[in-house]
Specification:
globular; 188 residues; two-stranded parallel sheet; alpha+beta; 3 helices; 9 strands
Length: 188
């Protein structure tokens, strides 16, 4: 089932995700729905907070980026209870966008290499190291389960330039080709 994407300004996007166990209710269906939602929305990653659940779960399929970024070849994975345990001091800057912040793309500087520990969809443990754009995609989705958005990491001047667009999103004025849930509006 295609789920609606929660948009900038919704409080769930700022919540710290909680660890889950294999008996989390409806987990396999939730993961399937997240894949379907991500593909329908033209994303390469989707985190549970983006569909209204403050849990430590995200899915990534960066394989479509492999032509431009060979390190993304075959990167299709479910990440449960992930923890980034190492980050390089060297960094890379690239433009990023987000399904929860449609229409905004900004340059973000991130560690070039990370090591992450996580459980897959079968709750099997993994510890893997990723570099380049693959590391960027993982860090972007990982930030979601930490209550962080990519716009938190952009230059102050860039934040000023997009302030109006973000304010409109908070007010529920947003355009996307997928269903969305906007921030609750205060009654007048």
């Amino acid at each position: 089932m295609k789920l609606p994407i929660y948009i900038y300004g919704h409080p769930v996007l700022r919540e710290m995700g909680q660890d889950i166990t294999p008996d989390y209710e409806g987990l396999s269906t939730l993961i399937e729905d997240m894949w379907e939602t991500m593909y329908f929305s033209d994303g390469i990653g989707l985190a549970a907070p983006q569909i209204g659940r403050a849990i430590r779960l995200f899915v990534i399929d960066a394989d479509p980026m492999a032509e431009s970024f060979p390190e993304c070849k075959g990167l299709k994975q479910t990440f449960i209870n992930a923890r980034i345990v190492e980050s390089s001091e060297d960094t890379l800057s690239e433009n990023e966008g987000c399904l929860s912040i449609p229409g905004i793309n900004e340059k973000v500087t991130r560690p070039a290499t990370i090591t992450i520990e996580y459980l897959d969809a079968d709750f099997q443990p993994h510890r893997e190291t990723y570099s380049g754009f693959a590391a960027r995609v993982i860090q972007h989705e990982y930030d979601h389960i930490e209550g962080v958005l990519f716009i938190d990491k952009i230059a102050t001047i860039r934040k000023q330039l997009i302030k109006g667009k973000l304010a409109n999103m908070q007010k529920g004025k947003v355009s996307a080709h997928y269903r969305v849930v906007t921030a609750p509006q205060k009654r007048k």
